[in-house]
Amino acid sequence: MSHFDTLITNGLIITAADRYHADIGIKDGRIVALGQGLSGAEEVIDAAGLWVMPGGIDAHCHLDQPLGDGAVMADDFETGTRSAAAGGTTTVIPFAAQQKGQGLRAAVEDYHRRSDGKASIDYAFHMIVTDPTETVLKEELPALIQEGYSSFKIYLTYDDLKLNDREVLEVLAMARREGGMVMIHAENADCIAYLTELLESQGKTAPRYHGEAHSAIAEREATHRAISLAELIDVPILIVHVSGPEAIEQIRWAQGRGLRVYGETCPQYLMLTAADLDQEGFEGAKCVCSPPPRDPKAQEAVWQALENGVFQVFSSDHAPFRYDDPQGKKLHGEHADFHHIPNGIPGLETRLPILFSEGVLKERIDATRFVALTATNPAKIYGLYPRKGTIAIGSDADLTLWDPRAPLTVRNERLHHAVDYTPYEGLELTGRPVLTLCRGAVVSRDGEPSVAPGHGRFLKCDKPQPARPRGAAKGF
Ligand code: DUC
Ligand code: ZN
Ligand code: ZN
Question: What is the mean pLDDT of residues 140-163?
Answer without folding.
Answer: 97
